[in-house]
């Protein structure tokens, strides 16, 4: 393959990658993603030592060590548009020779582990619970710009969900993409967590069924997704239901899969939309999830 053009792989004057402002040696192969830049400190405070701290725009990066395990934690900001930037640029740091602007022959597989917040769709799941996303349904169009392959479970879930929504005569007529969590990471880190299907929404208000002054196209958006349960989707004796929704997971799963990396998303369920409750201790809950995930990683 010919070298990449300067307009395709943009670098800063110091040779760092454009948006993240990072050099290859400043990133570990295990990467924890958080949406909120302030949450980076909440993760890295558990590190035994730090190698570097870098910030540009909403992207805050800390790299350091817990024992013999090197870790990077980076804030993505909100939404899959930012995920497109973060995953592509982190991949480039490892798998593209930045000086020659050429893809390396030997590629490095990264681990992306999301620690984020989420809303719950099931009344029976209490707030302040922790959930791992076994599948993620992307309601945005990020992956429509890429060429990718789906496995049988992903195809089955997408088709079944689309047919289910059509049967309810909703105004939702498209399910853009579905990706599964990496099985290796899920088996290594996901034990002792609730699991489910996570809906990744391209916004916080209308796309998540909230209505302030602007009128929503679909009045009962969340009710439709909450009604999709194990009676509707059974694949190889595994019964699934859409349990929660947020704004990054499907993008992370999709981009990681596309580039040959591993990805897993952990969710602190701070709101229960079915019961109308919101956590009274959101910071405590998130910190507990951080501690639990870091313990699993190291």
Account of the protein in words:
The chain is α/β, with parallel strands linked by helices. The chain has two domains: 1-108, Nucleoside phosphorylase domain (Rossmann fold), CATH 3.40.50.1580; 115-298, Rossmann fold. It has helices spanning 39-44, 80-95, 152-167, 183-189, 221-227, 249-259, 282-297, and strands spanning 30-34, 49-56, 59-66, 69-75, 96-97, 102-103, 111-120, 129-138, 177-180, 194-200, 234-235, 238-239, 242-246, 262-272, 277-278. A hairpin with a 2-residue loop joins strand 2 and strand 3. Helix 2 (80-95) packs parallel to helix 6.
Strand element count: 15
End-to-end CA span = 38 Å
In order across it, which strands form the biggest sheet? 7-13-10-8-14
Helix content bin: 25-40%
Q: DSSP strand (E) fraction?
A: 25-35%
SSE pattern, N- to C-terminal? EHEEEHEEEEHEHEHEEEHEEH
**Which CATH class of the largest domain?**
Alpha Beta
Mean pLDDT: 93
What fold name stands as the CATH topology of the largest domain?
Rossmann fold
Count the domains: 2
Shape: globular
Runs with pLDDT <50, length 5+? none
How does the major sheet shape up? 5 strands, mixed, barrel
| Name of the CATH architecture of the largest domain | 3-Layer(aba) Sandwich
* CATH-assigned homologous superfamily of the largest domain: Nucleoside phosphorylase domain
Radius of gyration from CA coordinates:
19 Å
Total count of helical runs of at least 4 residues: 7
- Structural class of the secondary structure composition? alpha/beta
């Amino acid at each position: 393959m010919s070298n990449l053009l300067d307009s395709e792989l943009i670098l800063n004057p110091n040779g760092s990658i454009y948006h993240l402002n990072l050099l290859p040696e400043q990133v570990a192969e295990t990467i924890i993603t958080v949406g909120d830049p302030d949450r980076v400190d909440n993760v890295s405070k558990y590190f035994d030592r730090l190698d570097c701290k870098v910030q540009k725009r909403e992207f805050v990066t800390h790299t350091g060590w817990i024992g013999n395990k090197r870790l990077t934690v980076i804030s993505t900001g909100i939404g899959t548009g930012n995920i497109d930037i973060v995953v592509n640029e982190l991949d480039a740091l490892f798998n593209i020779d930045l000086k020659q602007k050429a893809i390396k022959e030997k590629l490095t597989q990264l681990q992306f582990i999301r620690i984020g917040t989420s809303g719950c769709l099931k009344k029976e799941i209490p707030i302040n619970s922790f959930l791992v996303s076994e599948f993620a349904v992307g309601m945005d169009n990020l992956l429509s710009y890429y060429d990718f392959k789906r496995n049988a479970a992903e195809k089955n879930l997408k088709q079944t969900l689309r047919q289910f929504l059509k049967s309810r005569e909703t105004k939702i007529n498209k399910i853009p993409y579905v990706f599964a969590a990496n099985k290796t990471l899920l088996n290594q880190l996901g034990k002792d967590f609730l699991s489910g299907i996570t809906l990744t929404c391209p916004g916080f208000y209308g796309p998540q069924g909230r209505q302030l002054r602007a009128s929503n196209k679909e009045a009962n958006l969340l009710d439709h997704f909450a009604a999709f349960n194990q009676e509707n989707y059974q694949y190889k004796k595994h019964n699934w239901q859409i349990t929660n929704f947020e704004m990054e997971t499907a993008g992370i799963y999709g981009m990681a899969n596309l580039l040959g990396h591993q990805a897993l998303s952990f969710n602190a369920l701070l709101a229960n939309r079915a019961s109308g409750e919101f956590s009274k201790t959101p910071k405590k809950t998130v910190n507990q999830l951080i501690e639990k995930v870091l313990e699993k990683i190291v």
